[in-house]
Amino acid sequence: MIAPCGVNCAVCGAHLNKKTPYPGCRAPQEQITRKSCRDCAKKRCAFDQGLQWCYECAEFPCARIKDLNERYMRNYSVDLVKNGLDARADIEAFLEAQRTKFTCAACGGAIDQHHKFCSECGKMINSEVLDSGPFYHGTKADLKPGSLLKPGYSSNYGGRKKANFVYMAATMEAAVWGAELAQGDGPGRIYIVEPTGPFENDPNLTDKKFPGNPTRSYRTREPLRTVGEVLDWEGHSPEMLQQMLDNLAELKRLGIEAINE
Asked: What is the pLDDT along the chain (261 residues), one digit of tens a residue?
């Protein structure tokens, strides 16, 4: 289940979902529900040339592959260009290396390449922790110590769609913006939180605004547990806050979601 671009679909979190496993981008088109996979320009480019793999193209790695590789290297430490070169050199050895790399040594289950944990036993695999914290979450909700912040509720931002993730940051600056911009009538609150499962760089910031994640902003599909509250934080000036609100209002007018999940 290796995609033409070199992404290993067999260890994608969507495919490893036990309830509704996603078939991958090489499945029949009518089974591919994700637009990004169904209409993938990289896949279409390869197939239109009668190729099964991007590495078979004389232009490999092209600009599209380089752009995707930059994101995968930054967010998941997966080198798609190396995948293509390794597969070109010896496809069987490459496939065996992928099986070994993404097999949990503890139970033999498949490792989710995006979230770095075993899909069977749940063991965290990535020994290189993204960030050791402490972590903060800005909101207008009145929470008690030990409360769990879970995904699945209406987002505090943008069009208030169902949130698939909960967000946290390891910088007070990001948390302050969260507290000031959250929906609600109460005062902004900043809580100290701890993740209960794997987390990843927030692509709304790392891919779009601040490459390299200097704001140390993260998201997770697992609950965040509140362990305390920051009481002495200082908000932005009224002018800065109004400027941010104006920018968000303009994005809304243009039909652009501030948070894209």
From this structure: 899 999 999 998 888 888 888 888 888 888 888 888 888 999 999 999 999 999 999 999 999 999 998 888 877 778 899 999 999 999 999 999 898 888 887 888 898 888 778 888 877 765 455 677 889 999 999 999 999 999 886 665 555 567 788 999 999 998 999 999 888 888 999 999 999 888 888 877 655 555 567 778 899 988 999 999 999 999 999 998 898 888 877 766 766 454 555
This prediction's pTM = 0.50
Q: Write the burial class of residue 51 (CB in 10 Å: 0-12 exposed, 13-18 middle, 19+ buried).
A: middle
* 259, 207 Cβ separation under 8 angstroms: no
Residue 203 burial (CB < 10 Å; 0-12/13-18/19+)?
middle
Q: What is the dihedral of CA 214, 204, 202, 155, to 10 degrees?
A: 130
Contacts of 68 (CB under 8 A, 6+ apart): 5, 7, 42, 80
Alpha helices (runs of H) in the chain, residue ranges in sequence order: 35-38, 41-48, 63-76, 80-89, 91-101, 172-181, 203-206, 238-253
Q: What is the phi/psi pair of residue 238, to 5°?
A: -55, -35
CA 3 to chain centre: 19
